[in-house]
Amino acid sequence: MINAFDRSIVKKEVTQAIMVKPGWRKGHKVTLDGMGDERPGCLPADAVFTVAEKKHSMFKRVGDDLVLKAKVPLVNALTGWSFSFRLLSGKKVSCKFDDEVICPGYEKVIKGEGMPIAEQRGARGDLRVKLEIVFPEQLTDEQRAGLAEILKDCT
After folding, report:
1. For a tag site, which of 72, 80, 101, 115 has the least CB within 10 Å?
2. Which whole number is the average pLDDT over 71-91?
3. CA 4, CA 77: separation in Å to the nearest integer?
4. What pTM was estimated for this model as a whole?
């Protein structure tokens, strides 16, 4: 800030609150006109803030969708499985796979449970639950023979 009487430069800190809207993506810029540095004989600069995303332990953002990866033991992938988790909002979601065989690369899409879409009030992306099958690292000869007998007619 410039002192009009003696033309000296004075440092002054200003605090400004920025309301981050739900759904803003990494790289979104917020410009505060005239709130940046000032110099004698120049107009004050703009202050520009860029939105960054914090990594989450469970979810990954892909556009407006959220992706959750879950590991499923092989026996559960073949015989049925269910699990529960909490969304970022705190809402509890349960996924059940009772009447289906979970294949490698299986993905369940839950519509409207992803990130808010900033440009569309009330709209949300999807939640994509990607299931990874965990195969046993070793089997006994007896287990192999049993599996071969049980699965011999499966196609």
Report:
1. 101
2. 91
3. 75
4. 0.73
Is residue 77 within 8 A of residue 102, CB to CB? The reply is yes
Identify the domain boundary among 38, 53, 68. 53
Fill in the amino acid letter for 30: V
How many Å apart are CA 146 and CA 155, to the nearest integer?
Answer: 17
- Cβ-contact 129, 95 below 8 angstroms: yes
Q: Where is pLDDT greater, at 99 or 136?
A: 136
Residue 43 identity (one-letter amino acid): L
Per DSSP (E only), the strands in the chain are 29-32, 47-50, 59-62, 65-73, 81-86, 92-97, 107-110, 127-134
Lookup: tokens for 67: 């992706």
Number of domains in the chain: 2
Structure tokens at 49: 């803030």
User: 88 and 120, same structural domain?
Assistant: yes
Please give the residue range of the domain that contains residue 72.
59-151
